[in-house]
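Sample 1 of the test manifest.
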Amino acid sequence: MSGWDVAVVGAGIVGAACASECARAGLSVIVFDRGPVGGGATAAAMGHVVVMDDSEAQFALTSFSRRLWRDLAPELPADVHFEACGTLWPAADEEEMAEARRKAEFLRGRGLRAEILDEDGIREAEPNLRPGLRGGLLVPDDSVLYPPSAALFLLGRAPRNKIVLRTGADVRALDPDGGVVLGDGSRISAGLTVNAAGCWSPDLTAGLPVRKRKGHLVVTHRYPGHIRHQIVELGYLKSAHSVSSDSVAFNVQPRSNGQMLIGSSRQYGAERPDVEFGILRRMLERAALYLPSLERLTALRSWAGFRPATPDKLPFIGPSADNQKIWLATGHEGLGITTSLATGRLLADMILNRPEEIPSAPYSPARSLPEDKAHD
Amino acid sequence: MSDTRSRFEVVVVGAGPAGLAAAAAAAECGRRTLVLDATPWLGGQIWRGREAKGGPGSAKRWLARLQAAGAAVARQTTVVASPGPGVLLAESPEGPREIEWEKLILTIGARELFLPFPGWTLPGVVGIGGLQVLVKGGWPLAGKRIVIAGSGPLLFAAAAEYRAAGADVVLIAEQADLARLVRFGLSLPRLAPGKILQAAQYQAALLGVPYRTGCWAVSAQGADRLEGVTLRSARRTWTERCDVLATGFGFLPNLELPRLLGCRTENGAAVVDDRQESSQAGIFIAGEPTGIGGEGRALVEGLIAGFAAAGRPERAGRLWRKRRRALAFSRAMDRAFALRDEVRDLASPETPICRCEDVPRRDLEKYGGWRAAKLHTRCGMGPCQGRICGGAVEKLFGWDAASNRPPVFPVSIGTLREPDPRPSGASD
């Protein structure tokens, strides 16, 4: 047949990683995005590469992907701003300390580095955190990066002429026989199509249970050294899991230029992309509770974006349930930067019938899903 | 809480000519009115320093009228966000303030337009208006050789001020062609008779200073700081030795706050109706944000907005004729000082376009639009938030660099955050 081996819809970091892996395996790939590269959730994201352990499947995907990022680190250009700064999880009380210890054991038991800090240890690690914290967990091999440049790098990393990129191209529909139909009605044929359109993926694959989950971020002036690690409250787990209500959690990131990113918030049912002041204030209030010095620092800009969320907090990676020519790589919610590389690798393994480096079954679009409790 | 939150029938943001006129008009109609400004003085950039010194002219008259009308005044108060419908959040020396409004008038002025050229970031190359501010603040200019290159009537006013401060103004280079300026000059008796006297005064003050039209700076040279500027006209290219190059290509409306509030903009200006009301009911916009027009247009639009916001449309209506004349004058100015294509496109591949993030033209032009360029180069993401490079990329590449994200100006996180903190842990 004529056309491309693979058509990828969505040039976010997940689409870019899928396209890159396919092209590096020798397939010809065309990538579409209605906006620029990395203009959706990728642009709105913090860029935290983090191992998470909500479930074994989440751990498998995040830890595999973190390893791929670390392997790739020497090749990353300066504008990706990759920094292996680690994640610090402060524990406010004995209950959170117990959670920190549990997490540490979980990670160590699987061969990853994790360090328990006591009161003095956390004070030394992050002197600007509020006094009186009980301790914390340091995960030294987590890192941060600038996602839009990472997406662009992944697309450019493919061998010459193997990836054609069409930005500003509105894909109206996926062709059930492979390929896409563009907004002007023209058809581009391909052996198979990957729906990596994130929050917009249900527009192209009807019935896909991916919902928008809104988030806000604030960026500050440059304060080099003010914080040294990505710092995330352990309560983040509670707020990230709450599927019904709006929530905020303390989550700050040092950028390599000295700026800090301050998050995070999670909302269902918010359709407009504007910054919402009420939630922004709650988020900053939460942040100042942990990092009181923030009060005096200057905010430059805030923004909001949408994460593509699934009912069981795991992405869809693999052929769609009813059509083997339409594949999915979507629903990564707040972990798309971390898990993009593993998603691309796994997808290419499946397409090419290579041995899978981690089992793909937990991410199969055909898996059974819990009822979507978040429906308002 | 009570002193951090206040409520007014009419709130005017910006105390330049348009804002003073709007606040005076609304207060004269008996409306409880507040006018606020980020500066410590009233009068905006154009009347900077007039409040303290007094002196002749319209500044004094309008300040007196505002005082007589009894509007409340808040200085050093910067609006940074709109936390909800009918509320503004401002930063002030006393801390954060929430100001509730029934009618809002935005008179937030304009900023200088800078067009990048090779060498424009050398120390010694300054903005025309910026240098005026420095001179008023006592910055020493005596004996300095200054070239002024750019466009618009501000070139004369600035040259007169620099000269009064002891500078040796070597040359005023106006990019517009003489033929256009002559047509504009001939239209002055009809459009704005008062301007002729002003022009004559500048001429006297600038006796002996060469004024070249159809002439522009193509590059600035110097090792560590400015040593000279290369200029070009239709006939020749030459270099003038100088210590300071003051440059500026007119003004760009400030539109961040109108956009944040959802007011429609078109072709780089806010859209308003006959009563100066924007696309958002209850929000009026007057002066430069509706289109660059200078003091005269700002004053009449400010009055109309003030009367309309106060519910006195008949008083506003009486000023329409005057506004028509002001609009005709500003359109004639636009035509006279229209930017020639050459000055939009002076930057070399290496010339920095975004000064905050140090992004050269070469890195930008690979991208098809502002959003892609911004995402991948971080252009416009620095402290000025695209206020300088945004105008440059609009003229250079035709990109729309509009932004509507809070805060409107960089602000302390303490100001953005809830004024009455909840107990800890209340968020989950």
